[in-house]
Specification:
It contains 4 helices and 6 strands; from the N terminus they run E-H-H-E-E-H-E-E-E-H. The chain is of the alpha+beta class. The chain has one domain. Helix 1 packs antiparallel against helix 3. The model has no long low-confidence stretch (mean pLDDT about 90).
């Protein structure tokens, strides 16, 4: 089983969330999400205004990772490049990932300052006993 849950506050720069192109870039992001991801809610609903911020929120899952993770990374790289002031987290899990015998847990991708950092989750991992018995 592969799955991810994400929230990212969209911002054009670290100083100003909307430098004049945020709505256009959000539209481009919605199109990219629609082309690349099968997340819920749909592409249109996954980028919404939340209390004066534009937020990208979605969840996706599949029986096997397939190309879904590569597509997710493609969208995240787009955000890091086009909206470098954005920040947020992506939690993901793949029960078929090589090396699970060493780390049975969630991974987190930290989106901040135009960069993506892959980290091991310290809060819900290891899956047993934190989440499952």
């Amino acid at each position: 089983m592969y799955g991810y849950h994400l929230w990212i506050v969209l911002s054009e720069s670290t100083e100003e969330s909307d430098c004049g192109s945020l709505e256009r870039k959000a539209g481009e992001l919605r199109s990219l999400i629609g082309e690349r991801l099968t997340c819920k809610p749909n592409a249109e609903g996954s980028v919404q205004a939340v209390n004066l911020s534009l937020v990208f929120q979605c969840s996706g899952s599949a029986n096997h990772r397939g190309e879904e993770h590569d597509s997710l990374l493609h969208v995240l790289r787009h955000i890091a490049t086009e909206l470098p002031g954005s920040h947020g987290l992506v939690y993901w899990y793949d029960d078929e990932e090589p090396g699970r015998d060493r780390f049975d847990g969630y991974r987190a991708i930290v989106v901040a300052r135009g960069r993506l950092q892959d980290r091991f989750d310290p809060f819900l991992s290891p899956i047993t006993p934190h989440v499952e018995d």
